[in-house]
Amino acid sequence: MEMTSKPVGGGRKKAVSKSKKAGLHFPVGRIARYLKKGRYAQRCGGDAPVYLAAVLEYIAAEIVELAGNAARDCWKKRINPRHVYLAVGNDMELGKVLEGTIPGGGVFPNINSALL
C-alpha cells in the first residue's frame, strides 16, 4: 500500500477587516489611517479607531432614524437635507452638537405667538 501525503497548512487564511472583527459598518482601517495622518497626537492606541468608528456609526444611525421619522411625517419616502435639519433641530442633544447650518436645510418652522 502506498501512502500519499497531503500538503499541510492548506494555504493562507482569508483576510478579515478590523470593521468585520468589531462588528461595525464604518471603516476602522480608514479611520486609523486618518488619525495617524492627521497628527492629532504623537501616538494612537489600537482601540482608538475602533471606538471612534463605533461612536460615529451610532451618531449616524441616530440621525438617519430621526430623519426617516421626519420624512415619514411629511409623507415622503426619501430623506432629504430638510428632513435631516428638522430631525437634528428637534433633538436636544444632537441640536447642541450640530448647531451649524446644514446646506439645503432651510429654516426651522417657527410662528411667533403674537401673530396667531
Automatic annotation (TrEMBL):
Name assigned to this protein: Histone H2A
Keywords: Chromosome, DNA-binding, Nucleosome core, Nucleus
GO molecular function: DNA binding; protein heterodimerization activity; structural constituent of chromatin
Presence of the UniProt keyword Zinc in the record: no
Organism ancestry: Eukaryota, Viridiplantae, Streptophyta, Embryophyta, Tracheophyta
Comp. bias (Basic residues): 11-21
SMART domains hit by this protein: H2A
Key word Kinase present: no
Superkingdom, taxonomy of origin: Eukaryota
Residues covered by region (Disordered): 1-21
Domain Histone H2A C-terminal span(s) in chain numbering: 93-116
PROSITE patterns noted in UniProt: HISTONE_H2A (PS00046)
UniProt domain Core Histone H2A/H2B/H3: residue ranges: 12-88
Subunit structure: The nucleosome is a histone octamer containing two molecules each of H2A, H2B, H3 and H4 assembled in one H3-H4 heterotetramer and two H2A-H2B heterodimers. The octamer wraps approximately 147 bp of DNA.
